Amino acid sequence: MLGFLKEPVVVTAEINVNLVALTLMGLISRLWGLCYPRAVVFDEVYYGQFVSLYMKRIFFVDDSGPPFGHMLLALGGYLGGFDGNFLWNRIGAEYSMNVPVWSLRLLPALAGALCVPLAYQILVELHFSHCAALGAALLILLENSLITQSRFMLLESILIFFILLAVLSYLKFYNLKKHSAFSGSWWFWLLLTGVACSCAVGVKYMGLFTYMLLLAAAGLHFWHMIGDQNLSNVSLLCHFLARGLALIIIPMGLYLSFFYVHLALLYRSGPHDQIMTSAFQASLEGGLARITQGQPLEVAYGSQITLRNVLGKPMQCWLHSHTNTYPIRYENGRGSSHQQQVTCYPFKDVNNWWIVKDPGMQQLVVSNPPRPVRHGHIVQLVHGITTRYLNTHDVAAPLSPHSQEVSCYIDYNISMPAQNLWRVEIVNRESDTDVWKTILSEVRFVHVNTSAVLKASGLSGASLPEWGYRQLEVVGEKLSKGYHQSMVWNVEEHRYGKSQEQKEREVELHSPTQMDISKNLSFMAKFTELQWKILTLKNEDTEHKYSSSALDWITMDTNIAYWLHPTSGAQIHLLGNVATWASANAAALAYLCLSLWYLLRRRRRIYDIPEDAWQLWMSAGGICGGGWAVNYLPFFLMEKTLFLYHYLPAVTFQILLIPVVLQHLSDHLCRSVLLKSMFSALTVAWFSWVYFVYCTFSPVTYGQPALSLTELKALRWKDSWNILIRKQ
C-alpha cells in the first residue's frame, strides 16, 4: 500500500529562459533607483492628493476616470505605511520622511516591467517566431518613454499592463478554442480576458478602446463559428453564453465592485462633497451629515426647509431671498416689478429658509399629526425671515428677459395681484401619490397661473449686478422650453415648524433640530450619481505649457519636462526612443501598403503569399494595427487638454507591429539566401541604432547622471523639444 514511497517524488517543469531573462531585465530597468528623485515628479502632484485622501478616508471625485487606478496607487501607500500627511502643492517639492516613495512608485514600476514579457508572449501567441517575439520585448524594454512613465506614481503603465494582459489572455483563449473548448484552461483565459478588460477600464476610460477591439474580435470569431457545421446549436449557444458571461457580465460586475470598494473606503466628508446631491452628502460622515442627521423625512404643511438646486455646478446654491427689492429700472432701461429679490445663494444662510404653507389655511406650523405634502399638491412658499410669499408674474427677469421674474410679493396696492401658488412635482417619484421627502425627493415647482417652472438660471449664466449682491438669478421658465436639472430642487435642511409667532419662529430658524430618522442611500444610487458626475463633470480646460495635439505625437514633435534638479542640470523628460518611434511609423506604413497591394492582387486571384501566411498577416494587423488605431484616432474627436503620455498605449501596439513586418519581409520578400543575410545584417544594425538612442537619452529618462550644458544642448535633436537649460 505504501509502495509509492519507495521511489522519490520528482517534479519536472519547463522554464522559458527567454521569458525569465526578459522579466528580470524589465524589473531592473524599471526598479533601478526607483526612489530617485525624492521629489514630486509632474503628475505625482495630482495623483498624490488622491492617495492622501484615501489614507484619510475622505471622499473625492476625479473627473479623469474611475477609481481603480487610484486605489492601486493608494495600496502602495498603504503597504508603505503612508499616513497621508503631505502637501501636494508643487512639482519638485522634496518628499518628507513620512512619504514612502519606493512603495508609492512600486506598483506602476512592476506593471511597466511586466509589459516586457507580455509583449514577448503576445507575438508568440500570434504565431510569430521566438526571434520576432524577443525583438518586440526588447523594443518595449528599451523604450525610453515607457520607462519614464512607469517609474513614477502615474497610471499609464498600469493601464498598458492590463491592456496587454487582456490581449494576451484573449489570444491564448482563442488558440485553445478548437481543441480544448470549455476546459479549465479555456475558462481561465476567457475569464482573465474579461477581468483584465474591466481593470483596464477601471484604471482609465482609455481602456475602453482596447476592450471594444477585443469585443469586436470575439464577435467576428463567433460569427465564423456559426458557419461551422460541426458545431451543434446547443454548443453554439453555450459558446455564446460563455463569452457573454466572461466578456460582458463579469467585467460589469467587477467595474461596479471598484466603486463599491471606493465608496466603502471614502466614508468621510471632504472638499469634493459640494458637487454631489444633498442625499449623497448626507450619507458621508461629517459635513452635511452632521447638520441633516435625524431630520424629519416627510415634508409636511408647516415644514421649514432649505431648497438646494440639484444641478450643483459650477457651484451649489440654495433658494434665497432678502429684504432688498429689484430696481425700478435696469441698466438697459427695462422696468421691473420692484418686488423683493429672490436669488440662488451659494452659501448657507438663515435667509435660505422657507416655510411650506397650505393655501387654504393661515397657520405656519406643522399640525399633529403632520399632513405630508404629496406629488401634485398645491403649496405656497413663505420666506422664513421676511414672511413674504414666493411669487412670479408676467414681468421679464433681470438677466433673462425671455423668462419670468421671480420675487417675494410685496403688496403695493396697485393692479398687480399676488400669484403665489406652486404645484409640487416630484421628478423621481415611483407613483403619483408619492410623499415629498427630505433630501431624497427631487422636485419641480410649477407656477399654477403661468405654468412657469422655478429655475436657477444663474448657474448657466452671469450673476446679478451689484444691486443683487452678485448672487445667481432665479427665473420662471416656461415648460415648453424643455427639462433641465437647474429646474429641479431638493430639500436639504428640514424641521417641523412649531412657532406661529414671527419672533419665536426667527429664533427657531436659527436653531438646528435633531430627530432620529435615517436617510441611507443605496449603493446603486450612490454609484449612479458618482458615475454621472465623473462623466459630466469637466474641469475648465486651460492651455498647458506641455500640452500638445494628437498630430504632434506621431513624429514626437513634443516632450514633457517631468522634473528638474534645483541646483544641477539633472532632469527627467518624457521622450520616446526616436529610432523606435520612427521605425514604428515606417512599419505601420509598410503594413498598410503591403495589405492594400495583397488585397488588390488577391482580387485578381493572384496569391503572393500562402493562405496561412495571409491569415497570420491579417490577424497580427488586426491586433497590433487595430490596437494602435483605436487607442490613437479617438483623440482627434476629444475636446480636452492632451499630453504626449496619452499616446503611450497606442505606440505600444505600434511597436509590436515592427517585428511583425520585419519577419514578414524576411520570410516572403527575401527569397534568396543572400537577401536574407543582408536583411539580417541590416536588422542587427537597426537594433544597434535603437540601443544607441536608448543609451543617449537615458540620463533624461532616469534623471541621472546630471548633464553639462553642452550635453543637454546636444540632446535637443528637434527644435520643438523643450530641454531645460539653466542660465549661467
From TrEMBL:
GO cellular component annotations, sorted alphabetically?
Answer: endoplasmic reticulum membrane
| Mode of membrane association | Multi-pass membrane protein
Compartments it resides in: Endoplasmic reticulum membrane
Indicate the enzyme's highest-level EC class. Answer: transferase
Tell me which residues make up the MIR domain.
Answer: 296-359, 370-427
**What does the record list as coiled-coil region(s)?**
none
Which reaction does this enzyme catalyse, per its entry? a di-trans,poly-cis-dolichyl beta-D-mannosyl phosphate + L-seryl-[protein] = 3-O-(alpha-D-mannosyl)-L-seryl-[protein] + a di-trans,poly-cis-dolichyl phosphate + H(+); a di-trans,poly-cis-dolichyl beta-D-mannosyl phosphate + L-threonyl-[protein] = 3-O-(alpha-D-mannosyl)-L-threonyl-[protein] + a di-trans,poly-cis-dolichyl phosphate + H(+)
Mind telling me which residue stretches traverse the membrane in this protein? 68-88, 100-120, 154-174, 186-203, 208-226, 246-267, 578-600, 612-630, 642-662, 674-694
Instruction: Name the pathway.
Output: Protein modification; protein glycosylation
Q: Which family does it belong to?
A: Belongs to the glycosyltransferase 39 family.
Protein name, UniProt field: Protein O-mannosyl-transferase 1
Q: Origin organism of this chain?
A: Chloropsis hardwickii
Q: What is the lineage of its organism?
A: Eukaryota, Metazoa, Chordata, Craniata, Vertebrata
